[in-house]
Design goal:
Blueprint lengths: L3 E2 H7 L4 E4 L5 E2 L1 H11 L6 E5 L2 E5 L20 E8 L4 E9 L4 H10 L7 E4 L7 H8 L3 E3 L1
Parallel strand pairs: 2-4, 7-8, 8-9
Antiparallel strand pairs: 1-3, 4-5, 5-6, 6-7
Helix pairs in contact: 2-3
């Protein structure tokens, strides 16, 4: 899959408002697929893409810069933050919050179905009370550190 320009990419995301850093000229295919899959989750309405970071959420912060809310234990937001490591072909789940039951798994599923076979995912700090242990049973290429 070839890299798309930001303009071409934005046309493919119709279910969410998408914000792309000005530093990005071409969208990496893995970022494109992850973003598209996340945008297809009905509660995800906002996606922000930085050179090595994706945030997606049902809500954004107030103010001039609209940042998707992904903070764990937020009372109403459904969202996640991902660090993308292109050199090592992995995605780190940095933050995840699901104020609505079942959406944590939907977001994780959206990420994993986006990953090529030679990519993996990592959870560096697990404060979830068992959520990531359940996900690891479903996804063998998920590493919990």
């Amino acid at each position: 899959m070839k890299q798309k320009s930001v303009r071409e990419f934005k046309k493919t995301i119709t279910n969410a408002d998408i914000f792309v850093s000005n530093k990005i000229k071409k969208i990496h295919p893995v970022v494109e697929i992850i973003s598209k899959n996340l945008s297809e989750i009905e509660l995800i309405k906002f996606i922000r893409i930085k050179p090595d970071f994706i945030q997606a959420s049902s809500e954004v912060t107030e103010g001039r810069i609209k940042t998707p809310i992904t903070k764990p234990d937020h009372p109403t937001a459904v969202g996640l933050s991902l660090i993308i490591d292109f050199a090592y072909n992995n995605v780190q789940f940095y933050e995840i919050n699901s104020a609505v039951k079942g959406y944590g798994r939907k977001m994780v599923d959206a990420v994993f179905k986006s990953l090529p076979n030679n990519w993996s995912a990592v959870v560096v700090m697990d404060w979830s009370d068992g959520f990531w242990d359940k996900m690891q049973k479903s996804y063998k290429n998920l590493e919990i550190m």
